[in-house]
Amino acid sequence: MPFHQGRLIDHVELAVRDLEASRRFYDAVLNAIGRSITFEGPGLFAADELVVAEGEAISHLHLAFQAADRETVHRFHAAGLAAGGRDNGGPGERRHYHPGYYAAFLLDPDGNNIEAVYHGPTERSADSVVINDVAPK
């Protein structure tokens, strides 16, 4: 059975107390995994489906970003530490999840558990799902 992505979650909003500290952190870790901030507006920024907005942090989330390889996991971890993140598990294999599960964990400025994970070699049907606005007829 194929594994699908890009079909269930439209977006995730993460409320943060210090938008600028969070922007520095997410800009660094996203760049390390080959992604970037794709939108900025008053009191928020976004990267694809992730929206980070200034507000009262009401819960702690665990977000796992996809990494292209083990080196990307290392870059993510180093970049996050340099940008104010706190170590929550350095790069390494976590066989208790499954063989080949290679990940690193950081706590962002609000204490959310942010992960980069590489599951081993895979073949994607597409790099990403592209959605274009279509004007109603």
What does this protein look like?
It is a single chain. This protein is an alpha+beta fold and 137 residues long. The chain has 2 helices and 9 strands. The chain has helices at 19-32, 70-82, and strands spanning 12-16, 39-41, 44-47, 50-54, 62-66, 86-87, 92-93, 102-107, 113-118. Strands 5, 6, 7, 8 and 9 form a 5-stranded mixed sheet that branches. The protein is globular and about 50 Å long. The termini are far apart. The mean pLDDT is 90.
Low-confidence stretches: none
Radius of gyration: 16 Å
Beta-strand share of residues:
25-35%
Shape: globular
The H-and-E topology, N to C, reads as EHEEEEHEEEE
Number of helices: 2
Tell me roughly what share of residues is in helical segments: 10-25%
In round numbers, the mean pLDDT is: 90
Measured distance between first and last alpha carbons: 37 Å
Largest sheet: 5 strands, mixed
SSE-based structural type: alpha+beta
The count of strands amounts to: 9
Essential attributes:
137 residues, 5-stranded mixed beta sheet, 4-stranded mixed beta sheet, 2 helices
Secondary structure: elements and pairs:
Elements lengths: L11 E5 L2 H14 L6 E3 L2 E4 L2 E5 L7 E5 L3 H13 L3 E2 L4 E2 L8 E6 L5 E6 L19
Parallel strand pairs: 1-4, 5-9
Antiparallel strand pairs: 2-3, 3-4, 6-8, 7-8, 8-9
Helix pairs in contact: 1-2
Concise summary:
This protein is α+β, with helices and mostly antiparallel strands. The protein is 20% helix and 28% strand.
